[in-house]
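User: Could you go from structure to sequence for me? I need the amino acid at each position, not a summary. Structure tokens:
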């Protein structure tokens, strides 16, 4: 069995992306490649705490780690992985490396904070804390960052004997890539593509996902495999409508929980356009996330990765994410002051799924007032506060408090960074389905995967698998 593939995460769930590829060479050597090293988030938190501490394989036995993009559900366990003995290279695009630098540090702060919180609570109840140590600490981030080796889109690299890697732009977030491997065990070659997360075919900051060469085996995401996003043409108007209805009509606060990377900048870009056109009501806009501020700087630095039209626009307006009325909030003190802010405003804050970050303070402070509104612009994994709000809970728990939900809760699909079903079909249409030996669907709920599978079968992809956690396949 020369090639085997084992799914150690995002298999029937949307988080914890981790796929292990083993290549047995004819001369008896074995090479182990890990695709992504993501953290489990949300859904059944208690199980996930345990799963995040046990990889299901020995990190020391892995030769190469290849990272599709910087989102924590794809990169978040890297510091732990290195702490447990991984010493090989971590391949990513340069922008992914830059984003990981700030995101993993932010994640380490959250791990330390959560652990301290758990300890305190356990002590109060006269119990031992569940975990001796945080999952990882800020000290674990630097050694991990030193292992990064960057590769530009399209560049071919031999990452191990018999394994050639190249990335293509998947248009999902800055630096995001589909991972393509050409495997040669000395007897046969096989082309494997891992899509990572796939972006959208709409006019946004980033270009469309790029077509990729014919593969033999594909591991594909399927987050929105069961639905199509609403039409995007009216996105600008729709966002404006939400602002007017909450801030102008009700004189309330509009909270927009958003991923610090990508989503926040897309929102700022739309608000900037509305402001340039004189259509945005004059209300203060607070971007309350140090991570988002750092990410905005990194995005400006990598502006060459933006869509052509945006790059041209940049020549006219070099401050794509800045306009009168915007305040970037770094310090915790200033963030706390926003609680007492009187009058209408827009607060964009992380995290998008509302399971961590400053947004939780704003929600605790604002959810119980009917004049306020929450606009949810991204995917929320089951079990997160965001999912509870979408499901219409009348009361939620935040920092141990029961908070009644009286603010309006609205959703907008446009800012989702994930392709919908139609866009995924378009993305895979560059492939001749009769030449695909296996297609594995990951990173989606079982409902999304099943519906996507039936669509793919209609399009001629006949060998579609829905691997479960720990499932192992010989290729
Ligand atoms: Zn992602």
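Assistant: Here is the amino acid at each position, in order:
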């Amino acid at each position: 069995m020369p090639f085997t593939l084992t799914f150690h995460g995002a298999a029937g769930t949307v988080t914890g992306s981790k796929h292990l590829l083993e290549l047995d060479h004819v001369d008896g050597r074995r090479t182990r490649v890990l695709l992504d090293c993501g953290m489990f988030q949300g859904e059944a938190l208690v199980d996930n705490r345990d799963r995040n501490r046990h990889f299901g394989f020995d990190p020391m036995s892995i030769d190469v780690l290849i990272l599709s993009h910087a989102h924590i559900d794809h990169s978040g366990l890297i510091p732990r992985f290195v702490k447990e003995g991984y010493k090989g290279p971590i391949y990513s695009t340069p922008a992914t490396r830059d984003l990981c630098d700030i995101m993993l540090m932010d994640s380490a702060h959250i791990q330390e904070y959560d652990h301290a919180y758990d300890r305190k609570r356990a002590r109060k109840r006269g119990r031992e804390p569940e975990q001796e140590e945080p999952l990882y600490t800020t000290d674990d981030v630097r050694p991990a960052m030193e292992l990064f080796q960057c590769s530009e889109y399209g560049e071919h690299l031999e990452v191990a004997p018999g394994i050639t890697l190249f990335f293509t732009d998947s248009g999902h977030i800055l630096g995001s890539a589909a991972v393509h491997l050409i495997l040669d065990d000395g007897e046969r070659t096989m082309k494997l593509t891992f899509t990572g997360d796939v972006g959208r075919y709409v006019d946004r900051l980033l270009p469309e996902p790029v077509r990729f060469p014919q593969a033999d085996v594909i591991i594909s995401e399927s987050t929105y495999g069961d639905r199509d996003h609403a039409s995007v043409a009216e996105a600008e108007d729709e966002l404006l409508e939400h602002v007017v209805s909450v801030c102008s009509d009700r004189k309330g606060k509009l909270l927009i929980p958003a991923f610090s990377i990508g989503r926040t900048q897309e929102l700022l870009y739309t608000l900037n356009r509305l402001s340039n056109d004189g259509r945005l009501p004059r209300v203060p806009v607070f971007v309350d996330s140090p991570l988002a501020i750092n990410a905005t700087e990194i995005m400006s630095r990598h502006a060459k990765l933006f869509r052509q039209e945006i790059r041209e626009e940049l020549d006219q307006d070099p401050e794509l994410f800045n306009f009168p009325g915007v305040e970037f909030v770094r310090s915790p003190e200033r963030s706390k002051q926003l609680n007492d802010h009187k009058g209408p405003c827009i607060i964009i804050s992380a995290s998008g799924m509302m399971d961590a970050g400053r947004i939780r303070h704003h929600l605790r402070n604002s959810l119980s007032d009917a004049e306020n509104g929450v606009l949810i612009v991204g995917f929320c994994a089951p079990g997160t506060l965001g999912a509870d709000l979408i499901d219409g809970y009348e009361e939620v728990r935040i920092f141990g408090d029961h908070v009644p939900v009286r603010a309006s809760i609205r959703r907008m699909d446009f800012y989702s960074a994930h392709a919908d079903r139609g866009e995924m079909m378009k993305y895979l249409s560059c492939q001749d389905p009769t030449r695909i030996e296996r297609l594995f669907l990951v990173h989606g709920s079982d409902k999304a995967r099943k519906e996507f599978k039936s669509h793919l079968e209609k399009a001629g992809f006949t060998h579609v698998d829905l691997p479960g956690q720990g499932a192992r396949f010989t290729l």
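One structural detail worth keeping in mind: The pocket of zinc ion is lined by residues 69, 71, 74, 172, 197 (CB under 6 Å).
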